[in-house]
Amino acid sequence: MAEEIKNIKKAAKRIREAVKKGEDIILYGDADLDGVSSVIIMKESIRNLGGKVSAVYFPDREEEGYGVNEEALGYLKDKAPALMIVMDCGIGNFKELKEAKKMGIEVIILDHHKVLEKLPDASIIVDPKQKGDKYPFKEFAAAGIVYRVAEEILGDKMTSSLRNSFLELAAIATIADMMPQKEDNLEIISGGLSVLRDTNRPGLRAFFEVGRPDSDLNHLIQKIISACHAGGTKDHLNEAYILLTMPSLEKAKAMVEELWEKSKAKHFRIKEIVEEIEERLAGRTGEPFIFEGGDDWPVLMLGPAASRVCNSHKKPVFLYSQREEDSQGAVRTPKGIDSVDAMKRCAKLLKTYGGHPQASGFRVDNDKLEDFKNCLSKYFSEL
Ligand SMILES: [Mn+2]
């Protein structure tokens, strides 16, 4: 028998059971396109089984940070008892998931981020990077994993139009998350892109009909990604989610134009932040890594800014946005340097951290910033 992703059948069975028994189901996703696509695939799978989702929640990256957090649990408290499916985050939420359990919320994690020193307390965890997962391919986006779970949940109820619609989302999410375009991902991407031009999803259709439509599909996909990543969070719903689940094409077109304007403004601000960092770095060539922060840098822009600085300096880059009590940061590293490993060494100083070797994030109390920097300095000078 071919190997399968660990716990995938178990997760599908538990979700089907929850639908059958009419349990309350909460969908919780990261607020980027991968998380949003994951939530939509799961929601529409459950709907096609005849089930109902009682709440959808995306954390506001600026206010709440990444992953499951206290504020979110406060909001979701009233929904207990419930089954919460956490997608594209959760694998590093040790304290928060313990809290969820106490509240009567059972958690299934569908994640693709690196497993940290231990596993969180969840009832079922699907993450191809966990120990004992024998499935040979490890580089799925979260939406790719959720797509595989959807196949298990729906079985022969997966019609070809439903499959195509899920593949479109999983393909765009895999590209957006910059996962390697090989093996299972290649199958997902080529499947999704081959049907994208005929999409029935108004929120995607709109991109083909707004302004001067792009004839180059890859270019158009980059536009979709930029627009979706420029959206914010309103009433715990991400704007990309609102767009991609919108039934009206006319409304979707208006929203695409609005997000497109936001995206332009965002890119302009990222450029300014990168320039500010370059000015600070002038003459400081000997340092093994870059560690810079600002109190007016939006969290959403740290990742893209760190990517650019990392590309030009070929060094690990840690950027953070300093708020009143703590700071939220994004990390990018050149190939071969594992940022999650670096932070694992300094885990005691951090509130949360995690992600992928080349792209990750952290949250740290402001009074620990200096210690964190020193800890990283030790790690990188030993490398
Ligand atoms: Mn992801």
Compact summary:
This protein is an alpha/beta fold and 383 residues long. The chain has 14 helices and 12 strands.
Describe this structure in words.
There is one protein chain. Helices cover 49% and strands 15% of the residues. The protein is of the alpha/beta class and 383 residues long. The protein has two domains: 8-196, inorganic pyrophosphatase (n-terminal core) (Alpha-Beta Complex); 283-382, Diaminopimelate Epimerase, Chain A, domain 1 (Roll). It has a five-stranded parallel beta sheet with strand order 2-1-3-4-5, with helices on both faces. It has a five-stranded mixed beta sheet with strand order 8-9-10-12-11, with helices on both faces. A hairpin with a 2-residue loop joins strand 6 (233-234) and strand 7 (237-238). Helix 8 packs across helix 11 and helix 11 (249-281) packs across helix 12 (299-313). The protein is globular. The protein binds manganese (II) ion. Manganese (II) ion (MN) binds next to loops.
